[in-house]
Amino acid sequence: MMKRAHGLVFAAILAALLSCMPPSEAVAYEEGAVPDGGVIKGSIVYNGSVPTRKVIPTKDPDVCGGVRDEAQVAVGPGNKVAEAIVYLKGVAKGKKWERPQKTPELVNKDCRFHPRVQVIPAGMKVAIVNDDPVLHNTHGFLIKTTVFNVAMPKSGMRVERPLQRPGLVRVECDAHGWMLAWIYVADSPYYMMTGKDGAFSIGDVPPGNHTLVIWQEYTGAKEIPVTVKPRETVTVPTVELKK
């Protein structure tokens, strides 16, 4: 009985330690030719009243402004959804990956993050900028693991931090609790973010079975199985996002 009890305790401790471990590094994406690649396209809508969240600044009102309602879904004409991230899950090999020439930025301005949502390839850096004359503490989390934590007491500060692990990073300001942004760290070039027309199109997709993921900060992630045949264009039926 004693040995069994010790075994159970050890198993519990091991499980707890494993649950605290940071996410593993991504398997390296392999670039190559996709001569028979296809296309996946479609559009995204949100029907009904646009949800809002009430923002109540509790400090630095001259910079941060007053109480306001912020839309949680960016809806344009025809109920089309902007700022939704669309990507293919787990593509290990495919087209050439054209990464941005400039380091992407996350700017603290008027006690808001700009941009609020963006995609950055894994392995690149993000430049965190303070454009406000107040202290910001920009803190990014991948699940519960801190990705970066940068104190920025002065306006004009610019600090770069690497983004090595793929996944969705939630960004907060420890000094202004209402500030919120999202960075999807991509593990392949098969992604895009929708504009005001809510449309998406991902090209040079290797033939085969894929999982299309549509993520929006309010509704969360929606997965859609898609099969692409050689040189085929697959039009996904209009995707309606719901909470």
Can you tell me about this structure?
This protein is mainly beta. It has one domain (30-240): Cupredoxins -  blue copper proteins (Immunoglobulin-like). It is 9% helix and 47% strand. The chain is built from two helices and 23 strands. It has helices at 2-20, 61-64, and strands spanning 30-31, 38-45, 52-55, 68-71, 74-75, 81-82, 85-88, 93-94, 105-109, 112-114, 117-121, 125-130, 136-142, 145-152, 158-162, 167-173, 180-186, 191-193, 199-205, 208-216, 220-228, 233-235, 239-240.
Question: Based on CA inertia axes, which overall geometry fits?
Answer: globular
Q: For the terminal residues, how far apart are their CA atoms?
A: 49 Å
Number of helices: 2
Radius of gyration: 21 Å
Main sheet specs: 5 strands, mixed
As a percent range, the share of strand residues is over 45%
CATH class: Mainly Beta
* Structural domain count: 1
Order of helices and strands: HEEEHEEEEEEEEEEEEEEEEEEEE
CATH fold topology: Immunoglobulin-like
Instruction: Let me know the CATH homologous superfamily.
Output: Cupredoxins -  blue copper proteins
- Secondary-structure-based class equals mainly beta
CATH architectural designation: Sandwich
Mean pLDDT: 91
Q: Which oligomerization state do the chains in this entry correspond to?
A: single chain
For the largest sheet, list the strands in their spatial order: 11-17-16-13-14
Point out poorly predicted stretches. Answer: 1-24
How many beta-strand segments?
Answer: 23
Helix proportion: under 10%
